[in-house]
Design a protein that fits this description.
single chain, 98 residues, mainly alpha, 3 helices, 35% helix, elongated, FAD/NAD-bd_sf
Amino acid sequence: MRSLLYPRSDRTPGTTAQTDAELRETIRQQAISQWHPAGSCRMGLDDLAAVDPELRVHNVEGLRVVDTSVMPSVVGCHSQAAVMMIAERASDLSEATY
């Protein structure tokens, strides 16, 4: 199981990376996000926004975005709680629409 979770036993470059190119390759292979990305789906009524205030994707009928991408910034708690609130709001909006 460990080999599935950690396929490389060498988790730091140590002596295996001797050049800048080898260091960059080590970083490229091992770098992962430890954060919860948010805010990639701008909300608003202008042309730069992806969704409107009711989470509807502009110019795509019947599609809403319901995840952390509609949050303008990361919350101070686990993002799942905020996503559940966004989902509840989306459910209410969808129910009112249909």
